[in-house]
Amino acid sequence: METTFCQSCGMPLNSDGELHGTNTDGSKNADYCTYCYQEGKFTEDMSMDDMIEFCVPHMVEGNPGMTEAEARASMKAFFPKLKRWVVQ
C-alpha cells in the first residue's frame, strides 16, 4: 500500500480518510489534511517557508534523534514537490 502525503504540509495521510481535509460539499479531499484544508479552502494563508517553520517542531517530535536543521533541510527538499507549492 502506497503512503500518500498532504500536498501542503507533507503529513502522511491514512487510507481511511480520518485525517483528510474537506471540500466545500463536506466530502473528503484526497490531497490535503484536515489541518491544512477545510470546507474547500486552506486553513492558513502562508508561504512554503512559513509552513516549513511551522512543521519543524512537529517533525522533530515525530522523529526522535532528528535535529531542527535536519527537519528543515528535509522539508526544503520535499515541499517544492507538493501540489500546493509547485511553481506553475
Detail the topology: elements first, then pairings.
Blueprint (H helix, E strand, L loop, with lengths): L3 E2 L6 E2 L6 E3 L5 E6 L3 E2 L2 E2 L5 H15 L5 H11 L10
Antiparallel strand pairs: 1-2, 3-4, 5-6
Tell me the count of domains. 2
Computed Rg: 13 Å
Give the topology string: H per helix, E per strand.
Answer: EEEEEEHH
Instruction: Classify the secondary structure makeup into a structural class.
Output: alpha+beta
Q: Could you explain how this protein is built, in words?
A:
The chain is an alpha+beta fold and 88 residues long. It has two domains: 44 residues, no CATH class; 36 residues, no CATH class. It contains two helices and six strands; from the N terminus they run E-E-E-E-E-E-H-H. The strands form three sheets. It has a two-stranded antiparallel sheet. Strands 3-4 form a two-stranded antiparallel sheet. A hairpin with a 5-residue loop joins strand 3 and strand 4. Helix 1 packs across helix 2. The longest helix has 15 residues. The radius of gyration is 13 Å and the shape is globular.
